[in-house]
Amino acid sequence: MLHLGSTVYLRALAAAALSPRRAAAPRRTAPAERVVIVSASIGAGHDGAAHELHRRLRAEGVTVDRYDLLDLLPARTGRVVRDGYHRMLVRAPWVYQRIYSSTERAGGGGPLARALLRTAEDRMLRALPADTGAVVSTYPGASRVLGRLRLAGRLDVPVFTYLTDFSVHPLWVADGVDVHLAAHAVPAAQARALGAGDVRVGGPVVDPRFRPAQAGERSAARARFGLPATAPLALLVAGSWGVGPVRQVALELQGCGAAVPVVVCGRNEALARQLREDGIEHAFGWVDDMPGLMHAADVLVQNAGGLTSLEAFAAGLPVASYRCIPGHGPANAAALDEAGVAAWIQDAAELKDVLCDLIGGPRGLLQREAGLALFAAAGRGPADAIARACGPRDPLPVPLAVAASGVRGAGAGAGVAPCAVRGAGAGAGVAPCGVCGAGAGAGVAPCAAGGTGARPAVAPSAAERIRTRPALRRLAAAAAAACTVWACAVGTGVATTDTGTGVMHAIGRTLDLDRPPHAHHPEGHRS
């Protein structure tokens, strides 16, 4: 186990920083029919969207590869990021709220986040197969990595960002991303306001098992889960990690009398045991048959506004947001309420009345119709747009810098040489973004491969030479990033533990490189 003063972590980051800076861009030799999806195992929402896009694209005959951005960060930094985020939500949610708000005001991440994401660029390029026809991101950090590669002319295939949430944080809108795919007009409008160019509403991506209950399925599901046969049921979810004031909400649901609480705690088995001790009879840990549990319920109560809300819409289940987790929780609740697909309960005194209206009143009927309409209006959905981008007859979109706006202040792309194969340029002479500092590749030469679809040759330029930093500067940046990660971890530990021993134990467990990585559950619930 590493101790607080150990240098193993710094040495690992140093080795990563001193590795060759540039990865050679693979060359495509045939019409592309492969899509690469990049997600992140932070919660389950990003992975859940990636899994369903994977399934749909495979059904259209497209070969699909999936990668976790956290695995592409050096020296197991991704595990530190995931564990740190989890501990913030559990032990110091106010820290996450401050980070979320500050990056929202700034229009994106800070220099540390940018430096960390830059370390994944070469690994990302090396991971992409030579016949890749499009890359899809379901995580903001991955969009930033891919967008920088597009702007620099190092990636010549279109990049899509699928917006998994109804609210759009500025981190989602990355320079260089060709198309942003939204589930509804509300997140689409937010993305455009942040400067995104090509934004398309393609509807949610949800496992087809989530659908309205047929005759007899409701009673069968209740019997299968041991639930009351006739009483109204409120299904309370708290993400795959079971975070937020779940105990308080469960007891409030029980006390108000509007419905019997049925709680899903994800992988937080300790929370499930605690709830049963509190007198909440129907408290579950991880549930594989979430479609069946939704068929049994009358209303969904959630605190994050992620994947589970979309699944409830597909199942015809009315949704209420209540006592949301910090950061994206209230932002998603507001966006869902604006879209008319979920009620946002901000006052505990309204809990009973709103739930009763959702379960048996006109509000519930209207929300069911609005939720199901998301899928009826989606047509073939975002997977179809992605699949068509891989076809040899569709031209490659020009990579776009985020348009200048009061939030981001980035310049637009210009001066792109056309690709002789796909009919579009691969890089642009783009002014650096004032927020994320993503400079553009200039002077992109035309594709010289004739009909082979090879990647474009990027002419050397002053900007390119500046980006090739000496190894020692990369080492210094990596060391600074590691020290900052440690400082944040120590600060969180001091705020949430009683003794110095507790702090050192927590940090030591997080930075122990000999521990096996967390299991990755791409199909898991619930974020």
Taking Cα atoms only, what radius of gyration do you get, to the nearest Å? Answer: 24 Å
| SS field, number of helical segments | 20
The percentage helix is: 40-55%
Q: Calculate the terminal CA-CA distance, rounded to whole Å.
A: 31 Å
Give the strand content: 5-15%
Largest sheet: 6 strands, parallel
Poorly predicted sequence stretches spanning 5 or more consecutive residues: 1-21, 23-32, 393-398, 402-471, 482-527
Distinctive features:
six-stranded parallel sheet, 12 strands, disordered C terminus, alpha/beta, 10% strand, 20 helices, 527 residues
Could you please describe the fold and organization of this structure?
With 527 residues, the chain is an alpha/beta fold. It is 43% helix and 10% strand. It contains 20 helices and twelve strands. The chain has helices at residues 8-18, 45-59, 77-91, 93-106, 111-118, 121-127, 140-151, 185-193, 217-225, 246-256, 269-277, 290-296, 307-314, 328-339, 351-360, 362-376, 382-390, 462-467, 471-496, 500-510; strands at residues 34-39, 63-68, 132-137, 159-162, 179-182, 198-201, 233-237, 260-264, 282-284, 299-302, 319-322, 343-345. The strands form two sheets. It has a six-stranded parallel beta sheet with strand order 2-1-3-4-5-6, with helices on both faces. It has a six-stranded parallel beta sheet with strand order 9-8-7-10-11-12, with helices on both faces. Helix 3 packs across helix 4 (93-106) and helix 9 crosses helix 12 (290-296). The model is unreliable at 1-21, 23-32, 393-398, 402-471 and 482-527 (pLDDT under 50).
